[in-house]
Amino acid sequence: MLRKTFIIASLFPALLALSGCGKEKYTEFRVYPLPDSLTLERGSKSFVAFRVEMPDKSHIYGNPKGPGTGKATDIIVAKNDNFTFGVPQFLQAKKYNAPDEKEFVWIYKDETTIFVPVTAGTNARNGLHELAITFDALLCSATTCIPKQVRLPYPVTITDPGHGSTIQSTSLAALFAASSPPGATLQKKDTASSAEKTGPILKGSTFEPRYIESSNITGLIQAIIFGLIAGFILNFMPCVLPVVSLKIMSFVKHAGESRKELVKLGSLFSLGILTSFLALALLASFFGYGWGGLFQHRLFLIVMTGFVFVLALSMFEVFTISAPSFSGKAAQVRDNRYSDAFIKGLLATLLATPCSGPFLGGTLAWALTRPPYIIFIIFMSVGVGMALPYFILTVRPPLLKLIPKPGEWMRTFENIMGFLLIFTAVYLISILDSSLHLPMAAFLAFLAAAFWQYGKFGALFKPRWKRIASTAALIAIIAGGYLFAFSFLTKDEGTAQISSSAFSEERILTNRDSGRVSMVKFTADWCPNCKFVEKVSLYTPAVAEAVRNSGIDFMIADITVKNAAAEALMEKMGSRSIPFLVVIPPGADFSRPICLRDIYSEKDVLRAIDMSGKGKETKAGAPGFIFQIR
Length: 630
Fold this sequence. Notes:
alpha+beta; 6-stranded mixed sheet; single chain; Immunoglobulin-like; 630 residues; Glutaredoxin; 46% helix; 18 helices
């Protein structure tokens, strides 16, 4: 039992580290606004720029994306009565032909900038407003595509005419001038160069291009053959390899049993694969899902990640799933075996969907433009191709002799597969929005605790009352863990929203001279206490109302990664740790900010706001400088 506990404990530092790593520029996908905030006079026009950075050998699609397979990148701006928004504008994309595609697409590699024109209404309300903007794209590499949907709250301050608007940098203004709405001039460079080479003869002409490609789909029979080959190759994709390897090992375990039993196990595993492909075909035909489309849904990703992680725990013998207690022991073993085969078949297919491989892209692209019955035929051919090796392996038991006989090596092999499943879980976490990395890791910790106690107290040889109690505890811990992780730890900031902007020393000095109170929240993604105190003490209706009524400029200093300016201000304020909140009065009391350190309450925040507004004489926590509430 100590061994099991050690294994569980050792997994989570790795999960947390891996899910939060990779902050260097161009080593991971990033999207962020430029500038970090905007000031507009009523009736004036400007734009918000969004810089998109992509890791090496990956790309996102242009808008429009072109006739090939993919998803057009888009920026969605929620309606705001104080502003009018123009159509998002894009820079020139590059033409790209994927190896398995006959149609081209427009893509961006390395980096690009997208612009949203914005006009402040003539009757807009003065003050700080937060725009709700969402970036929506598909990040693709040679082997996989990952949906990226990033929420980007953006602060815009409206002022009276004559007070001045933000002056955009020369480089951004030049890029904005070169951008255009979707379909307007996105392809102008390619079109212009073609016209220069071929002259006016192309005007008014239509073409039926012929492509010479070895993988070009010309008919249903060829698509079925390519589908079978693509399905077979899916078995070797890194996403699915741990599951299919474990299934083969289970066949080896039962190799000494009757041929009928082996055929039944192989058939159930194959049926699980085909059932998944049938469901995928249904989603593609009638609901518009593409390959891997399920991974665009947060709940599906959470469930899949948890399922894979729990499967990994079983590889380390943390628990074993027993069949219902009303069946006999022999029947329980058989039922367990059969359900295990079918479920692993389902799981193998679902884990394969983020991956692609030779023949698959072109085959599915051809199928998805056909009627539903063709889509079903092609998806099922891919499923048959994936399932066929296992069916053959069990129908022909002598083939199992090629694998070493069962022994101690199988336990080691299962442990290795368990670690591969852990890495699969980490990969699935990376697909989630970065704001969900910490909640997902916390939920996995609850899953580990739930199944550890189930393995200890819910085993088949335990008394009936213990098994019932353990099962109830299993359900309670999983449900409670989910609510805690995805309600309490998510970055949805409490019950009330406070408009905010990024920390800026210049802004603090401007507020000092203009008579406006500054409030700075120091926080980091790796600080669980920050999430707690912000949720229960800062983002509350009472505090939000006080900030709004007092006209306080609320800023966020994020020190998740090195932030020299923010950390220098913290040190000057007498603090080296977070959570840390500072309220800085303007004018004569500027040098005497009110500081809240560690775990503070809503009452403390309201008191700090009240003190900053009234400018009372206070005793400083650090001589002549800081008043601290602890």
